[in-house]
Amino acid sequence: MQAKKELFDKYNDQDIQKFTLTNDNGVSISVISLGATWQAFNFPDKNGKTANVLLSQASSKEIMANQYFCQAIGRTAGRITNGTFSIKGTEYHVDQNEGNTTLHGGPHGFNTQVWNGSIEDNKIVLEKHIDSSEDSFPGNIDVKITWTLDDDNTATVTYSAKSDADTLFNPTQHAYFNLSDANNVYGQSLTIDADNYLELNKDKTPSGKMISVAGSAYDFRSGQNIKNGIDDMKASVGHTYDEVYVINDHKAENPIATLSDPDSGRQVSIFSNRNALVVFTPDDLDGVKFERGAGVPHMGIATEAQTLPDTPNHKGFGNIVLPAGEEKSYSISYKAEF
Ligand code: FUC
Q1: Is the minimum distance from the CB of 335 to ligand 1 under 6 angstroms?
Q2: What is the pTM of this model?
Q3: Does the CB atom of residue 73 touch ligand 1 within 6 A?
């Protein structure tokens, strides 16, 4: 394993660092300190040609102009209805950043922070103290994001946090993948271990209802080609995927989802012990310049492993309370195969 730290660029006069781990098979990951952004996941195709399978932007300026791409998301992934929730009977109102909704932790979410980074024992470690005043969530929190890469080609991100007051913690990594050399994901297929998805309101907040995927464009249980899925979604429900899947109970050694590309032979399996996966295939990437080229519809597919969003506002969605003084950790692993 090799570990490297280098200067990525400057943002608001601050040095932005880039950290890279390369394993014994030549597979590598890079993460930058702005937004704890996952900048690269490089691995070969079946002919040995290495490529970055993430939708990456080349500079901090672009990353901040077009947020969320492959960035760390927190304190709370997804949407909180009216920015309002209760913990132990106390109601809180947090900053809204999408109409009345709080999306991805609000305006000062993890993706907007410049993290203090270092390499420790072949791990990338990013740390940040985030004050309650930044986004109106209760609790000043100390957050640590750790990235590892093993010789089985699995990259793992772990989010840990400790707070001085009861708060919410539901982090995710907003990876957008494209495993092929093509500028869309149409040839790729996805499998998701989910019998149900969430019904969403017009503003994309959950209604609280879970719906069976059976017999619909939402059904990825036996694998589905993404282009067929998108066409079917558009014909049947009038829009592309921006969906919350309810992950079935499963063994830790089984992936919650697998993305594969028959042409290149590349595959990524996602492992998580949480109960949701958000899948997003944006139609409109106009004006975003990625390292692989100008943004076009369906250039990548976002997968966000997390706990079901808007958690405290719905019975049965889970528990994302981070109690004062306790540390909680969540990991997501991505195994590359080729
Ligand atoms: C996903 C989607 C949202 C949003 C964001 C950038 O989480 O659910 O609609 O566009 O990504």
Answers
A1: no
A2: 0.98
A3: no
Residue type, 24: D
The residue whose CA has the least distance to atom 1 of ligand 1 is 280
174 is catalytic: yes
Asked if residue 41 has its Cβ within 6 Å of ligand 1, the reply is no
Question: Who contacts 307 (Cβ-Cβ below 8 Å, separation ≥6)?
Answer: 77, 170, 274, 275, 276, 317, 318, 319, 320
- Our measurement of the distance from residue 169's CA atom to the centroid of its chain's CA atoms, rounded to an integer in Å, reads 14
Which CA distances in Å does 220 have to 118, 207, 214, 230, 279? Answer: 39, 22, 9, 12, 11
Distance 23 CA to ligand 1 centre (A): 32
Cβ–ligand 1 distance for 70 under 6 Å, the answer no
Catalytic residue, chosen from 104, 108, 243, 304, is 304
Report the 10 Å Cβ neighbour count for 249.
6
Q: How far apart are CA 20 and CA 122, in angstroms?
A: 10
Q: How far apart are CA 131 and CA 138, in angstroms?
A: 9
**Model confidence band, residue 115 (pLDDT cutoffs 50, 70, 90):** very high
Report H helices in the chain.
60-65, 226-236
Closest ligand 1 atom, CA of 244? 8
pLDDT (tens digit per residue) in 138-189:
999 999 999 999 999 999 999 999 999 999 999 999 999 999 999 999 999 9
Which phi and psi angles does 261 have, rounded to 5°?
Answer: -125, 100
Check: CB of residue 103 under 8 Å from CB of residue 94.
no
